[in-house]
Specification:
Oligomer: single chain
Number of domains: 1
Strand content: over 45%
Radius of gyration: 14 Å
Number of strands: 11
Order of helices and strands: EEEEEEEEHEEE
Distance between the termini: 28 Å
Number of helices: 1
Largest sheet: 9 strands, antiparallel
Shape: globular
Helix content: under 10%
Amino acid sequence: MRLTFLGKATQGGGSPTLFTTDRGTYVVQGWKVPGRADHVEIPQRLLKHLEDGTFLGARLVDSGRGGFTLSGRPVTDPEALSQMDIPGHETCVEVPENKEVWFGGAAAR
């Protein structure tokens, strides 16, 4: 899986980060959720890096701390992981990239 960097929520290494893939999905890097290997927590501001006309194909649950938790398929692909800087307190999941639909038609931009 090849990743394309879209943006980070903070500066420096690691930190919540958003990528798009060559498989039509997003990879979301965020903070680990204890006991949930398939969940990450991200700050709301990370969502500004989504590609226009798309959204994360995952249910976002308000964390109560200015962010969301979401679940996806844990990323285990060595090629993808080698492209990322993931500190011990973070992990990443892959989620579908869905297209926005407005009133029965595709979103126009």
